[in-house]
Amino acid sequence: MEQSEDRPSIRARSWLFAPGDSEKKMGKAAAGAADVVILDLEDAVAEEAKPAARALVAGFLASRPPQERDRLWVRINPLDGPHALADLAAVVPGRPGGVMLPKARGRADVEVLDHYLSALEVSAGAERRSTKVIALVTETAEAMFTTGTYTGAPRLVAMTWGAEDLADAVGAADNRGPGGGYGFTYELARSLCLLGAAAAGVAPIETIQGDYRDLEGLRGRAEKVRRDGYRGMLAIHPAQVDVINAAFTPTPEELAAAQEIVDLFAAHPGAGTLGHRGAMLDRPHLARARALLAAGGRA
């Protein structure tokens, strides 16, 4: 198992998809405010267009200055399909910041991906393990049972989940309930992704909101999942990026309250619990306050 001190990390609030078959849309996404731009070779590209899109993404990466490529990631096709190796061979020489692995079935898939990436990095003259990985961990029925297996997975920095492919996998007519929210199976997927990411020590990233025009709904959902423990969210349209960035950025009031808790424990270093504003605080409160300050860049 990899040691925690060797594990790469990432702090990224917004992860914006851009279709790999459109140079215009990739350029617009890269010019925007998304923390990570995901050049998509999977769902956004029709089967017959994948070879051309692969070449377009490779050329796009090669055209960008080296300092920009760390935030340019690529969603490849699934490992068990015919396109993944060709995707990797085409894009790794362009040195993207990372790869999104769709339909991951457990830690073993990330380990296979690590082997492929290591060989291609050596061939391209890139630093070994310079390419990070985010795994989509709930897109198949099988994958739902392996969300807790990713501890120590090489290169892994984040985990996210998907509701649309999962609905297809189980034969559901819809993944939404009468009130518009996700049904039980999909809320379970969200929870399993969060717990799996916590167990693996990587960032949990919320799935997309398909209605890109509903920015108020997006804001409410993003704020809720941040309270639940998520650290960022996928986006499908540039209009969603600013809302996501704001929702996953701690407010000045939150930072001030967290700093107050940290200062209180610092003033009483031997205390396990402390009274504060009519409530009892213990060490988990301190840990959460420190985490929030770290997210706000004030740790």
UniProtKB/TrEMBL annotation:
Top-rank taxon: Bacteria
GO molecular function: lyase activity
Needed cofactors: Mg(2+)
Keywords: Lyase, Magnesium, Metal-binding
SUPFAM superfamilies with a match to the protein in the record: Phosphoenolpyruvate/pyruvate domain (SSF51621)
Sequence ranges assigned to domain HpcH/HpaI aldolase/citrate lyase in this UniProt record: 13-238
Protein name: HpcH/HpaI aldolase/citrate lyase family protein
